[in-house]
Design a protein that fits this description.
mainly alpha
């Protein structure tokens, strides 16, 4: 899958960057995310993006951020979400 970055560049989507961002947000919010939580969150993010994009395997930074927001909110990680949003400013 490819991603359109905020500056318009297109590059390969790297889920490891998403994982790192979520780990950093959890650390900054002093929340504990165990490896199992993180795997489920990342799995759900990837699946949501693939479901949205179906045959057109290109997404945008904004879409990825929206999916991350929804997954963290849905799964009850509000402190991680708050830190993630603040970091993105």
């Amino acid at each position: 899958m490819k991603i359109i970055k905020k500056d318009g560049r297109i590059e390969e989507f790297n889920i490891k960057k998403v994982k790192t961002s979520i780990e950093n947000a959890a650390r900054d919010s002093e929340s504990m995310l165990n490896e199992s939580d993180l795997k489920i969150i990342i799995f759900d993010i990837e699946n949501a993006l693939l479901k949205i994009r179906k045959d057109i395997l290109i997404t945008s930074s904004y879409e990825v951020i929206g999916v991350i927001f929804e997954i963290l909110k849905r799964d009850g990680f509000s402190s991680v979400l708050k830190s993630y949003v603040e970091f993105g400013k």
